[in-house]
Amino acid sequence: MAQLTDKNIVLGVSGGIAAYKSADLVRRLRDAGARVRVVMTAGAKEFVRPLTFQAVSGQPVHTSLLDPAAEAAMGHIDLARWADAVLVAPASADLMARFCHGLADDLLSTVYLATEAPVAIAPAMNRVMWVHPATRQNLATLQERGVAVFGPGRGDQACGETGAGRMLEPLELVAALEGLFAPPVLAGRRVLVTAGPTREPLDPVRYLSNRSSGKMGFAVAAAAAAAGARVTLVAGPCAMVTPSGVQRVDVETAEEMATAVQQNLPGQDIFIASAAVADYRVAHVADDKIKKSDAAMHLQLVPNPDILAGVAAASEPPFTVGFAAETSSVEEHARDKLRRKGLDMIAANRVGQAGGGFEADSNTLDVFWTGGGRRLGPGLKTQVAQELVGLIAERYQGSQGSR
Ligand code: PMT
Q1: What is the pLDDT of residues 102-150, one digit of tens each?
Q2: Which one, out of 129, 159, 255, 369, has a CA that is 20 to 30 A from the CA of 97?
């Protein structure tokens, strides 16, 4: 992918421990062909010295709004005009609040106000700060204004806690930024995506589910939106941030997902089913918590509706893309699902091993259609999703004459 070749990227660095990763991000952006100029806030300089960024970017680092030398060469207006995109990584809670309120008392916030280029932020903060209502509100406001939000991820945090709030890794940020420059191959199209797991309750406190994190499906939704589509994302329970510009419908069970898909289906051009839907639910959900006993316990399971097959069987179905999670004989099983469910395409991934499938950040997809196929990846799910959306757009356009 050469989306960043010769692109001018202003990388804003705000104050947070994740700032140390931003030096590597500069290198990765340059490896992808971009020119990078770094703007640091006062807080960022407490974590990493400007000299580090100067060394990795090969350019002077910009730190001050009222710097006479900078004003003569690259002041805030010049930087704002120079940028093809502004990426702030890490974006602290304070930085988000400042952008939200339109403050203009330091260089980075002023560049944000003065630029007409797309702006993206990669939040990084303690998990409690991330879910604080003030941060949620600032996030929603920035997204409404068109700011793209990359991440954050979940995991161990510098403060010793575990949860959502980690800055995405440099390569993930490069892939997400490439998405901002993706050709609008789905402009004017409506795309419905399912993602994440479903939860099938046993009683008020227990459920059956699976390991799906939502990473693959959310990456597909983000890539489709970046390609110009109007995207609706029906998501099972997962801790993913809604991609910018995507309309999200949260559901819990397979039956709720089936209903949400049917409600949102009219007018859709493309349906992509990446959710890991539970095939079965318990026949009778207990009203009260099931008591422990020494006797063996038997659950009676009944099949859930097949959401994907239902869409493909509609009288005027959209271009329908399924996923297949397989542990063996991947092509054979995937082609069988393609045929049985009446799909236009299926994206198969090998699951149950490291390096792809459930929960992993990377994946490899073997995509099949009648008479053809193509391998995508291995790569980050964000990159593989962009390739998949490109392939879907190509096959969708090709299918239009024959419908
Ligand atoms: O979420 P991640 O952690 O990133 O992991 C990604 C993933 C492994 C979940 C994803 O890449 C994937 O493979 N999703 C499909 C998982 C799955 O349920 O596969 P399946 O082979 O059991 O189902 C085949 C297809 O039918 C899928 O498109 C599924 O969404 C759909 N289906 C299945 C059952 C059902 N009742 N309704 C459905 O629509």
Answers
A1: 999 999 999 999 999 999 999 999 999 999 999 999 999 999 999 999 9
A2: 159
Q: Would you say 120 and 177 are in contact if contact means Cβ atoms under 8 Å apart?
A: yes
* Active-site annotation holder among 2, 140, 159, 313: 159
**Structural domain total, the chain:** 2
Question: Is the C-beta atom of 261 inside 6 A of ligand 1?
Answer: no
Nearest CA to ligand 1 atom 14: 274
CA distances from 2 to 6, 86, 182 (A): 9, 18, 10
**DSSP-derived 3-state class of residue 72:** helix
Are both 285 and 341 inside the same structural domain?
yes
How many angstroms is it from 323 CA to the middle of ligand 1? 5
On whether both 232 and 365 belong to a single domain, the answer is: yes
Q: Residue with the nearest Cα to atom 27 of ligand 1?
A: 323
Q: Is 215 in the pocket of ligand 1 (CB under 6 A)?
A: yes
> Do both 232 and 327 map to the same domain?
yes
Identify whether residues 217 and 162 lie together within a single domain. Answer: no
Considering the domain architecture, whether residues 166 and 214 belong to the same structural domain is answered as no
Burial 128-154 (b: 16+ CB within 10 A, else e): ebbeeeebeebbeebbeeebbbbbbbb
Question: How many angstroms separate the Cα of 192 from the Cα of each of 208, 310, 312, 337, 375?
Answer: 25, 14, 13, 20, 23
| Nearest partner of 127 among 168, 162, 96, judged by Cα | 162
For residues 355, 357, 362, 367, the Cα torsion angle rounded to the nearest 10 degrees is 120
pTM of the model: 0.87
With a 6 Å cutoff on the Cβ, whether 281 touches ligand 1 is: no
Residues of the domain holding 393:
190-400
Q: Is residue 185 part of a domain?
A: no
